[in-house]
Amino acid sequence: MRFFSLEKNCFVTVPSVKNLIHTVEGFIYLKSILLSKFKLKFILTRFFNQDPLENFFSYIRSHNARNVSPGVSHFISSFKSLLITNFMAYHSRFSNCEKDESSQLLSFVAKKVDNILKKVQMQNFSDTDFIEAREYTRNLLKRPGGFVTFLVSEAVPRLYFLIPRLAHKRKISLILKQILFKIINFDPINCRNHNLKNTLCDFLIKCALHFWCEKVNKIARGQDSKFAKYYKNCVNKNNIDPVKVRALKKCENKRKLKNVYKNKPS
Predict the structure, then answer these.
(1) Max CA-CA distance within the chain?
(2) Measuring CA to CA, which residue among 210, 209, 200, 215 is closest to residue 152?
């Protein structure tokens, strides 16, 4: 395992054999600890590779704020947080690392919590029970009336149907507001002093536009695997949001183009 180097004018030893011996010795030492101390039945050595480590340490360095040289306290706090939350995210997206879709830890935690919690049979559960349970000391949360809940349930589906079909229009908020006032009666909650009718309608439109744009951007960036799976399995694709479909196809074309350039011989 030696070769003659013209630059150094001597025989040079390849470090691969030495590193392999060092790696095997490390696995033997790690195996003795994991199998004896933690009572594990087997070890999947395939998961001990560089790609998951690169993914995880990149999350450590970018947690909360970018820190290329984290200290001990920052590393410990980030490690504790990412040990759980990092498994929720899709790893190695558009990168040259091997796909890392680890999710075992979350299932372990969920099973442990499920065993600890007492089983309570919920009957006649109301939407307002959650609001009441979230009330804090100052009790600033207010319980909406039944008619407000009805208006929201009627307006939101219509907004998500209209927004992709009117996204190219200028002053879309005003157009959506005029349409809602024609098909939904907001008059029972109208107040001359506070103009509650317009306030509620404007708030619903603002929230719907924000979440719709956020969803489209996530699909275009390839961060929404649920929509891609839903579109693939959906039988009647004509009823799906056309803008989201265009965003998904744009993401897929970008990914294919990147793979073509990646596999193209230099």
Answers:
(1) 94
(2) 200
- pLDDT tens sequence across 164-185: 999 888 899 999 999 999 998 8
Instruction: Note whether 92 and 99 are within 8 A (CB).
Output: yes
Is residue 48 within 8 Å of residue 27, measured between CB atoms?
yes
The helix/strand/coil state of 200 is helix
Q: Which two structure tokens, joined as six digits, stand for 97?
A: 């690392």
Grouping H, G, I as helix, E, B as strand and the rest as coil, residue 192 is coil
Q: Where are the domains of the chain?
A: 1-48, 50-90+106-112, 146-263
- Strand, helix or coil at 170? coil
3 state DSSP class of 227: helix
Contact predicate 156/208, CB 8 Å: yes
- What count of other Cβ atoms lies within 10 Å of the Cβ of residue 31? 14
For residue range 193-219, what is the model confidence (pLDDT) as tens digits? 778 888 889 999 999 999 999 999 988
Whole-number Cα distances in Å, 157 to 115, 116, 168, 205: 37, 38, 19, 11
